[in-house]
């Protein structure tokens, strides 16, 4: 006959098996339209996959990234999340059809839209595993926001970065909350208030990204980093350290307020003027009197 300890151990094994089985079923049943996801050893790879739209962030894509992250959040086998792209663009440009819809949004609709990206950024910043971004090609606007929210960044040497929102009447409210803890105030103002783009070398020099690699070596350098990281760091220590960083910077409250500011700014005339001109592929002279 089995004693109590044996029965208990068998129950624990059964519960573990059921958890793994349920996780596997969820993953097999879900197919993504705008991203790809796969796991290999200790790494969850998320690949942005809207090449015809230059991987521009879109509510459906944001939801898919969020879903993958939530699915693997408690997985003990995953130590690192690697975000990259299936094309020669990391994430840039804007979704034309969605911009057209945004022009008709109410404040409440704009707030919900802004909160969707806000929630993804919150998830990334407080995520219990290391998040690495591999940037090949442009990382612009929301795409650069994903870079900013990642823990470690590897960039191919010809990539470019920028937050050009002010040029078309947007306000980079969410990303401004993150940049404050990444680069100094002078550099932050230069990037956000001019809307300029910078190359990988300059992004590295101001602390926006961690590593600049050539095209041939970037995958090898990332794999070497991940192997060393998984060998030399404690999973629980990483989880708690990220929690401390997130809480100490008061990012929860900052992002909540930024989402409201973002939504309110979209109700202004400058937003409508800028987006309308962008959709018509017109250059805006903001110095011209109304």
Q: How would you explain this protein's 3D organization?
A:
With 290 residues, the protein is of the alpha/beta class. It has a single domain (30-217, 231-279), classed as Alpha-Beta Complex (2-enoyl-CoA Hydratase, Chain A, domain 1). It is built from twelve helices and nine strands. The protein has helices spanning 4-29, 59-72, 96-102, 107-126, 142-149, 173-179, 185-194, 200-205, 218-232, 235-248, 251-265, 269-279, and strands at residues 35-40, 43-48, 80-85, 130-135, 139-140, 152-156, 160-162, 197-199, 211-213. Strands 1-2-3-4-6-9 form a six-stranded mixed beta sheet, sandwiched between helices. Strands 5-7-8 form a three-stranded mixed beta sheet. A hairpin with a 2-residue loop joins strand 1 and strand 2. Helix 5 (142-149) packs parallel to helix 6 (173-179). It is globular. The termini are far apart.
Class derived from helix and strand content: alpha/beta
Query: Do you know the CATH topology?
Result: 2-enoyl-CoA Hydratase, Chain A, domain 1
Beta content: 5-15%
SSE order: HEEHEHHEEHEEHHEHEHHHH
Largest beta sheet: what is the strand line-up?
1-2-3-4-6-9
Number of strands: 9
Instruction: Please report the distance between the alpha carbons of the first and last residues.
Output: 89 Å
Shape: globular
Total domains, how many? Answer: 1
What integer is the average pLDDT?
Answer: 91
Brief overview:
This protein has helices at 4-29, 59-72, 96-102, 107-126, 142-149, 173-179, 185-194, 200-205, 218-232, 235-248, 251-265, 269-279, and strands spanning 35-40, 43-48, 80-85, 130-135, 139-140, 152-156, 160-162, 197-199, 211-213. Mean pLDDT is 91; it is low at 25-29.
């Amino acid at each position: 006959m089995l004693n109590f300890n044996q029965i208990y151990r068998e129950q624990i094994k059964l519960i573990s098996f059921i958890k793994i089985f349920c996780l596997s079923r969820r993953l097999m049943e879900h197919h993504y339209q705008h991203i790809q996801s796969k796991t290999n050893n200790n790494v969850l790879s998320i690949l942005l996959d809207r090449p015809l739209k230059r991987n521009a962030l879109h509510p459906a894509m944001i939801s898919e990234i969020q879903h993958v992250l939530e699915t693997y959040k408690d997985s003990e086998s995953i130590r690192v999340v690697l975000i990259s792209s299936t094309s020669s663009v990391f994430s840039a440009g804007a979704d034309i059809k969605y911009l057209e819809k945004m022009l008709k949004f109410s404040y409440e609709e704009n707030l919900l839209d802004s909160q969707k990206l806000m929630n993804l950024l919150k998830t990334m910043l407080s995520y219990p595993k290391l998040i690495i971004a591999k940037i090949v090609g442009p990382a612009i606007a929301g795409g650069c926001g994903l870079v900013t929210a990642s823990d470690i960044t590897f960039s191919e040497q010809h990539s470019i970065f920028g937050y050009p929102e002010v040029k078309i009447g947007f306000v980079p409210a969410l990303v401004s909350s993150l940049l404050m803890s990444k680069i100094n105030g002078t550099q932050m103002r230069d990037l956000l208030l001019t809307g300029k783009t910078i190359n990988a070398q300059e992004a590295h020099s101001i602390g926006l990204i961690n590593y600049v690699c050539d095209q041939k070596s970037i995958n090898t350098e990332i794999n070497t980093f991940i192997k060393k990281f998984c060998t030399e760091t404690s999973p629980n220590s990483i989880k708690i350290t990220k929690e401390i960083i997130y809480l100490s910077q008061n990012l929860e409250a900052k992002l909540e307020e930024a989402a409201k500011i973002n939504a309110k700014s979209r109700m202004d005339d400058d937003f409508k003027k800028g987006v309308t001109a962008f959709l018509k592929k017109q250059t805006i002279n903001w110095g011209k009197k109304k």
